[in-house]
Amino acid sequence: MAETLTKQDIIKDENIVYKKTGLMTDKVLSYCPGCGHGTTHRLVMEVIDELGAQANTIGIAPVGCSVLAYEFMDIDMQEAAHGRAPALATAIKRLMPDKLVFTYQGDGDLAAIGTGETIHAANRGENITIIFVNNGIYGMTGGQMAPTTLPGMKSSTSPYGRDIKTMGYPLKITELIARLPGTYFVTRQAVHTPANVRKAKKAIRKAFDLQKQNKGLTFVEIVSNCNSGWKMTPVKANQWMVDNMFPFYPLGDIKVDGELVK
Amino acid sequence: MAKVKGDIIVDIERCKGCEVCIDACPTHTIAMSEDVNGKGYHYMQNVHDACTGCTNCAIVCPDGVITVYRVKI
């Protein structure tokens, strides 16, 4: 019986088990092949789809690789000035407290130029969700060193590797934010394997659920690759990320229910 | 024993050939094509029919090009 099953029998609408969510537009993503941004975009949209909150969500797009996020996410979006997404999200959430408000930011946006906005929004305990994609480099502008670049890691502005004597230490902004009393849920995830994608989606879902309950700021960091900036193939970049990024940026929950767990 | 059989449909023109899905496939069903799409990328495709419809390839795909089908037999 199994042998008689043809491709036409399997490929039917009623047999679909996974399909790109309708909240992602049909535009081709502007990201490099293998970039974690695409997966993260989709996870955020899947969660909003599951919550049935397409008409009730306002996203804030950052400056950086994901500057065109509003082209790909089929929800209401607002573009913020560089690093100012948490400030804008604060305003939107205070004016429209019944909306789900999230910012989607990279490490150059959130941990460099927008450090002040990020820390103060977290410290005020604004009831927003921040999705933070950390790839340890300024991807869009050509792979320059970012605050999150690892010690010894090569970038176009640290060609011999980041020297901590002259260039300082990498900023673990997620740990920093977790120590502020205004944050309620802080976690670090990745999207390079199916298991990690599932965990990351659960974390994003939890963050949005907690925002609905007005618990305070929820923060999800996604450690991602930047294969173009790191000058590797996507698969090698993922392996490099596992070997080098994860020891410095360990995955897992950092703050759950307002209590530090790490 | 209930068995499952799956299949995938790939949006070839949107695939960027990053090969992340190939590592994620537990049955080694997918591989890169020798042909290229309109943008010059090799795209991924089904090479044999061991697919179980586990959706691993589809959920790691950064560009969301894969639709997964599954039937119980």
Report on this model:
The complex is a heterodimer of chains A (262) and B (73). Chain A is an alpha/beta fold and 262 residues long. Chain A has one domain (31-260): Rossmann fold, CATH 3.40.50.970. Chain A has helices at residues 7-10, 36-51, 69-72, 85-95, 107-113, 115-124, 164-167, 173-178, 194-212, 227-230, 234-248, and strands at 16-18, 57-61, 76-79, 100-106, 129-134, 183-190, 217-223, 252-256, 259-260. In chain A, strands 3-2-4-5-7-6-8-9 form an eight-stranded mixed β-sheet, with helices on both faces. In chain A, helix 2 crosses helix 9. The longest helix of chain A has 19 residues, at 194-212. Chain B is mostly beta strands and 73 residues long. Chain B has one domain: Alpha-Beta Plaits, CATH 3.30.70. In chain B, 14% of the residues lie in helices and 36% in strands. Chain B has two helices and four strands, in the order E-H-E-E-H-E. Chain B has helices at residues 20-24, 56-60, and strands spanning 4-10, 30-36, 42-46, 66-72. A two-stranded antiparallel ribbon of chain B has the order 1-4. In chain B, strand 2 (30-36) and strand 3 form a beta hairpin. Chain B is elongated, with a radius of gyration of 12 Å. Chain A binds chain B through residues 1-2, 5, 7, 9-12, 15-21, 24, 28-29, 31-39, 42, 191-194, 197-198, 227, 233-235, 238, and chain B through 3, 5-7, 9, 14, 16-20, 22-24, 41, 53, 55-56, 58-71, 73. Strand 1 (16-18) of chain A pairs antiparallel with strand 4 (66-72) of chain B, so a sheet runs across the interface.
